[in-house]
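Input chain follows. Return structure tokens only.
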Amino acid sequence: MKSNTNMQAYLDDFGLINCYISKSFYSGKSDFFYLSNDDGYYKDCIVKQIEERKDNIKYQLIIPTDYEFGKEYALVCSLGVQTVVQVRFIVKNPLFDKLFTYTKSDLGSTYYKDKTDFVLWAPTATKVMVVVDNEGEIIAKQMQRSEFGVYRASVKGDLKRATYVYHVSVNGSVNMTSDPYGLSSKANGEVSAIIDLKEAFGEVDDIILPELKHNVDAIIYECSIKDMTSSILSGSTNHGYFESLSQPHTNYQGKSTGIDYLSKLSVTHVQFMPVNDFATVDELHKDRSYNWGYDPLQYFTLEGSYSANPNDPYDRIKQFKHLIVELHKRGIRVNLDVVYNHVYDIKMSSIDRCVPYYFFRYNDSGYLSNGSYCGNDIDSEKSMVRKYIIDNIKMWLKLYKVDGFRFDLMGLIDIKTMNDLFFEAKKINPSVMIYGEGWNMPTFLNDEDKSKIENNSKMPGIGHFNDYFRDSLKGKSADSERYDKGYLTGNYGMVYEMMSSLVGNSINGNYFQRFIDPNHSINYVEAHDNLTSWDKIKECCKSEIREIRMQRHKMLIACTIFAQGVPFIHSGQEFCRTKLLMGNTYNMGEDINKMDWERMAQNYDIVNYTKACILLRKELQGFRLPTSKEIAEKVSFKVLDNVVLEYNIRHVDKKVNINGIKVIINPTEYARDYTYNEDYVTLMDQSGYTIQAPVSKRIHIEPYSVVVCALL
């Protein structure tokens, strides 16, 4: 039975149906209503309230208490019209979660050599059929409803190379859909694939990396799988795939590219922009479109355009797993950028096709919440949505052995979900990193429940991108604010904001405190969106010559790496990456987004400078103080000549035999000399290194530069 265009009925609460009859149909008047179904069920409804609206009349109906989920009901009115009862906002009632929350870990398809089991959570569905395509042989099997609204079926035979879809009968329609828990698919995600875990994940990853005791010991490098090797100058044998990036010994003009480049840069973590299946790239014609991947389609399935063989469901798994193994061999951990806050299109989404209305947030007027500005927000507070996110996190950790997650628009997700998933992730990988964008987005969720920066004290294990840090050092990043300056780009009045930033906004007193400790502060001046920092400097420092802008750019890199907190670098930042003054280039193609290896070679001195900063941070514990208490005790500042900043870290480091660190930051056009009562040795100057630096009480600093000295 289908919904009638003249009359629509929605089960919006326990014992309550809202019915709407069009005024164009006999003025929308009905004297009575009753429920019926194919089992001979027939019971009257009570009209509780009638509301006359512009185009229809709304009837609020009290229905019998023996309404049973999993059966299809028709609502019949006195006009002789009937319509299917659609299960709608009742799914938002907490009682619905009590009745239908399923806690086991067997959702999806499970392959055995002689059979495959299929398990789908679809409590509002009336029927579900699984249709298997075993290399041309079609097998259709009705699934059996079991407790908690879970449908089950077993299909005999060796289905290792088979694909499948579900036909879900719900709300008067039959929705054909892939499996929300499907581990892979053929091109463009139209069918899910049955996966033999032993074959797909057979490559051994037995690398034991040293424990990450504190997030401040991490140095994160963000990049896109495609962009890293899409240029023909990357030296890889093919371009833009998982396997392209795992290829060793690639180079441009004798300088390493790809995975060897990441290794030589000495970062601890690479953060991949979304690798799960996204919607707007045709995987069979991947060169005709481009996207970063913030348009999720399937969450358990990898993006097929990153595989050379998108119609082979095993290839993308094996290639990504191999890439992770190769990064681990080089001592580099892997964080994934995950987009749980919204989907590209609800109607394309398997989770909504299986359980309409459940997975997404609605406001009190019955409209979709849109805090993501992408048309929908995931309703993370619902128990099975929370389970879905946590199950997905556990899958990446267990099967692929990734090491952490960056949450896109994390402020749209509730605090309990973030804390629960952090707890579960820690059990699997004690060194896991969890962090994200804690912006306060206008979603239909109470402010006190949002995973936003202001609530960071409620999420002790979760880090947040520090936009205060970004704006204080570089200047604001919105397109309308591209000429705004920060301390390092010429607004010297922001020297005190600079101090707060250098302590990761993690102590109070004379500083602006945002975070309960430095592990919460992800310090960055550049990420994939907005202008690159080089383009920003080009805009806000237009009057300065290129050489000065290059020096300012190096200062941004140095101060990001030497600040307390967690340093974050965007790919290409270390060689003055440009996007030709464009900001959000998420769909603008390879030419604008690719790693420009020629530019890397031209600006290799800044690559070396970045590496020198990274190695120095790794060597000196004083740059990585793990608690606010230590920072408050050991870090102090002085403003010299009303504009130069002296950043002191009184940390005795027996490993390298020094008694402290002094960093002097000079963003002005004048060289400076300062004399102290103590002996210092310069560890790093404006070039990124020193050769046999003498011990001295005098420190010299060039214009537009950062000097790092050790207190002996």
